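Feature request, filed as a ticket because there's no other form

It would be nice if the structure record came with a short human-readable summary line next to the tokens. Right now we just get the raw output. Example of a typical job, pasted below so the devs can see what we mean:
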Amino acid sequence: LRTRFYYLLIRLYFDQEFSVEEFTRGAKQAFSVVSKLLSQRKLDLLDELVSAEVLQVLKEKLSLLPDNHRDALAADIDAIMYTTEGDVRIYYDDDGRKFVSILMRFWYLNGANLPDAVPGETKVFQIVFGDESMKEKRHLLTANYEFQREFTEGAKPDWTITRIEHPRLLE
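Raw output as currently delivered:
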């Protein structure tokens, strides 16, 4: 109920064209693109999508990440099983600038070679293609991405990712 109220406030006071469905569609697409670029360590291509502070933290974390965990970061848009809004915030900074941030939670399937007992991970699924000897493991993983947009007059109308969490993978 609280989240729906914030969406109403966004439409009334910031963006009359705001649509939850359109935002969610765009967030899924951004999540897929960003997660693949993270997996490939192509951080230079994330400048316009991710805040500078988050990029700096990611550079440090990715350099220490094992290859199988890095592979598990990638989420194909068709492999996103479920998406939900976590938290919506509307706030003003000390200079009177207006911001909206929306935390999105994603559950996605990934075939990375992870151990069966990754702590905090959801059940491992085995999908059989053809005969029994051709089993393919898929992990159901989660990620949290926070999107922020400045609604001050004259600001660029772009959403920026200000937080990226892949629990148990990017810690």
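Something like this underneath would help us a lot:
The chain has one domain: 1-7+15-105+141-165.
The mean pLDDT is 88.
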